[in-house]
Amino acid sequence: MRNTVINEQLISGLRKGVLGIILVLLFGTIGYRVVEGWDWLDSFYMTVITVSTVGITEVHPLSDAGRLFTSLLIFGGVGVMAYSLTRLAEFMFQRSITNVLGRRAMAKKLSQMKKHVIVCGYGRTGSQVVAELQAANKMYIVIEENEEFVKRMEELGIPHLIGDATEEEILEEARICDAESLVAALDSDAENLFLTMTAVGLCQTVRVIARVHDPDNARKFRKAGASRVVSPISSGANQIAQLLTRPSVVDLVELVTMDKSIALEVFEHTIDEDSDMLGKTLAEARVRQILGSMVIAVKHRDGTTAFDPGPQTRLNLGDILVAIRQSDSGEQTI
């Protein structure tokens, strides 16, 4: 916010300076036209060489009134010109320093990021993703080249890089190989598809979540390496259908996952090497006692998912428990 205030002050000073230059030139040009009766070009030229103090000989011999007017123009106009040029130089210098320091600060922040999310595009989808990541206290970086969106992110203090997200250099600057996920939320399916291919080509371990406008393009994204493909059209149509056929179920899911005032959360817990549940069945693992939750699904490492798993379901390394509980712990919420 402080940088925003400084920029506004610099821009305000620059506007005053430009306005001052215009007024001085108008005043001098009209003055010579009235006092000496010169044509507009000669009057303008005389004003320029006077306020710039270059010392060139007068366009025409000056009358006594013309000399008095020239003296007035020098005392007033030179001061205004000096102020205006100072504001312009200050603006250019400050913007250059701000850009350099901003890039260094962002590079330092990125060097400390691990398992972060790269959000490509800060449009309607990208901005909502950022809001959810902020609510979940998840590290992220946004890549955007639209000046309007960049300005908005600067005002909100959102970490970002300015550039084309489909370029390898900008993805490497965002430390894609250290990232956990990448969200492709650019304007078109073609851009998102190219971004997916570029991201997977740079780092095959990154999870790419791509937004598509045309549901028919989903298969192309999966072939390109996207882990998940989200179609707002298909999702919206499916939700409408669910509301028509199973409204109570949809209402319950929305309450649990969207209403922040509800003290329930759906979360995931990964079975790692240090987990006490490793190699045990659900009955032996005592999930309810350890996590205080009810398991609704188990995602196995081979990609299969067991919904409503039985008590004899065995938990192996890399399995992910999807469960529901009262929201008091620090697990990753879905």
**Could you estimate the helical fraction of the residues in percent?**
40-55%
Q: Radius of gyration in whole Å, from Cα?
A: 32 Å
- Please count the beta strands (DSSP E, at least 2 residues each): 11
The backbone outline, from C-alpha atoms, is elongated
How far the N terminus sits from the C terminus, by CA atoms, comes to 31 Å
Mean pLDDT: 81
Strand order of the largest sheet: 3-2-1-4-5-6
CATH architectural designation of the largest domain? 3-Layer(aba) Sandwich
- Might you state the CATH topology name of the largest domain? Rossmann fold
The CATH top-level class label of the largest domain:
Alpha Beta
* Count of distinct structural domains: 3
Low-confidence stretches: 1-6
> What structural class should be given to the helix and strand makeup?
alpha/beta
SSE string, helices as H and strands as E: HHHEHEHEHEHEHEHHEHHEEEE
Could you describe the largest sheet, including whether it forms a barrel? 6 strands, parallel
Strand content: 5-15%
